């Protein structure tokens, strides 16, 4: 895989002409196999969600370096940002999404905050090595079935994510800049290459679960989407 996922923020790989919206995870044979095996999908939310609604997942396998998780399908609200730096892109996207949950929607209702703030990162084709960021909030469970209200801002959109399997690396502390995010991604893809796990090397997700003012008990994740069934097998 040549560590392409980890190199995105460093612009070491030309990704070609980037689409208007980066590709979302697609359902795979791994998901079907996991569901057929009777995995206990949707266990209680983990501690790092801090009593907020967060996407349901099942831990399929665990290694010293990462977890293999099966994520259920779910709705997110998202916005796309092109920026030179992770922090700038996420800040701009967060403000758009926060305005949406604060009432800038067709129902003019306030929507509860959820976790994590998820960012899909992909390399852009433009000059000076910009990256494309898709920042997303998970739609609260109360709106998952009947649908969340439509955003007022045309740059914000409701986004359905199919079920998918991901390799997930976890870290504490503050991970809020290009170097820290990229380092987490590279460590994960190094481990996946070592284990010969097939994965989508063109994009990855960063998931942050904490506001900036939380000093202790912070939790950060990098998600790399699995491409084939081998990544979801239990040990």
Automatic annotation (TrEMBL):
Keyword Manganese: no
Annotated Gene3D superfamilies: Regulatory factor, effector binding domain
Family indicated by similarity: Belongs to the HEBP family.
Native source species: Chlorella variabilis (Green alga)
Protein name: Heme-binding protein 2
Signal peptide range: 1-22
Pfam families linked to this entry: SOUL
InterPro entries assigned to the protein according to its UniProt record, in alphabetical order: Reg_factor_effector_dom_sf, SOUL_heme-bd
Keywords: Signal
Entries under PANTHER family matching the protein: HEME-BINDING PROTEIN 2, HEME-BINDING PROTEIN-RELATED
């Amino acid at each position: 895989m040549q560590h392409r996922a980890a190199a995105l923020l460093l612009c070491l790989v030309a990704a070609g002409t980037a689409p208007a919206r980066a590709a979302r995870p697609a359902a795979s044979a791994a998901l079907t196999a996991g569901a057929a095996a009777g995995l206990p999908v949707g266990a209680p939310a983990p501690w790092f969600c801090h009593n907020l609604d967060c996407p349901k997942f099942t831990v399929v396998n665990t290694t010293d370096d990462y977890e293999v998780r099966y994520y259920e399908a779910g709705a997110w609200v998202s916005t796309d940002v092109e920026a030179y730096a992770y922090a700038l892109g996420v800040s701009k996207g967060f403000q758009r999404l926060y305005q949406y949950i604060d009432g800038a929607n067709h129902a003019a209702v306030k929507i509860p905050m959820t976790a994590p703030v998820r960012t899909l990162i992909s390399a852009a084709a433009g000059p000076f090595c910009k990256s494309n960021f898709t920042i997303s909030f998970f739609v609260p469970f109360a709106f998952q079935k009947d649908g969340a209200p439509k955003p007022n801002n045309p740059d914000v959109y409701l986004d359905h994510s199919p079920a998918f399997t991901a390799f997930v690396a976890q870290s504490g502390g503050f991970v809020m800049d290009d170097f820290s995010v990229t380092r987490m991604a590279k460590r994960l893809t190094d481990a996946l290459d070592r284990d010969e796990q097939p994965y989508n090397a063109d994009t990855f997700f960063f998931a942050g679960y904490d506001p900036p003012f939380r000093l202790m008990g912070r939790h950060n994740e990098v998600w790399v989407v699995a491409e084939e069934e081998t990544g979801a097998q239990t040990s």
